# Entry
Amino acid sequence: MKKRLMAMLLCVAMTAAMVVGCGGSGGSSDSGDGDAKEESSEGGAASDLNVGVFYYTYSDTYIASVRTALDGKLEEKGITYQDYDANNNQTTQNEQIDTAIQTGANLLIVNIVTSGSVDASTQIIDKAKAADIPVIFFNRAVEDDDTEGQVLGSYEKCAFVGTDAPEAGHMQGAMIGDYLVENYDKVDLNKDGKISYAMFMGQLGNAEAIYRTQYAVEDANAKLKENEKPELVFFDESNTDKYQVDQDGAWSAAAANNYMTTNLSQYNEGNNNMIELIICNNDGMAEGAIAALNDKGYNLGEGKTIPVFGVDATDAAKQLIGDGKMVGTIKQDADGMADCIAALTQNAADGKGLMDGTDSYNKSDKVANKIYIPYGTYTGEE
# Structure
């Protein structure tokens, strides 16, 4: 009896040893807020890091691209991480951060919900300070022009990886202006000597949305004026804002599709007041607008096409451009952003400062720990 019992115990011990030897640190799943990912590390430093990655929403197409890229890069480095979806709710994100810290997160990577809000970003900084852990903000601004450096300068263990917000607007405006100078008569469908445009804004108060809305039109008009052509005219004279905004702040295809479907019921070739140009703050909204045009027989890849411009250079937008249904977009480099975030994360894993070895990146002239990933134009050629 004793011999059989000893044999059983020995078998159990050997099985346990095999599991520990093969498994590393096992993955777990957060039932509602997050998606846990853990990989065994090649180095000791990476295995000590427990990262919480907080996204403002999984549903944003560009953010989904960043998430896919960043997941892959963290896994390559053997860094334990857990993704969280705030579903566009700042309170939810704050609670997720609290939970992550309580359960052992020692680095926060945050795509903040309330873009440009010092109050919201300061709350997150305070949480990181209290836990004495670094925080990397990315993509969505944590300050506005008037408060630049106030948040990022308040904590030595924080950094920001994003874009120079006005750059996309300027680049999109130049692209639109150049296109219209070359194709003005073709775009002017009703031959009234002016071009009627629609503008779809992603989110009120968002720095990127504000600058894209402003400069896309201003810079296009500057090009037109230089070439002695009339400036753009917003299609709805009663709309003094000169944009239609996603009221949910989600930059969604659905919002643009709903707006454009309604617009086309009144503004169309039959009424001789067709919208002749569509400018979108992101490619998701461009997709929605194009779908509405498709329903009316436009932008099918041949025949009548209303020029549509976006921002992000998502795979879907590239396909639409390749199919002749969309003119161009501004590339927001998801892979480049993920690369930079991963490099800062590796610094934390190695016990270095977040900004160590980052001299090759574009940085803000005003804020030393703010890194800009450059934009690029995309019209079908890489």
User: Anything to note?
Assistant: Confidence is low (pLDDT under 50) at residues 1-32, 38-44.
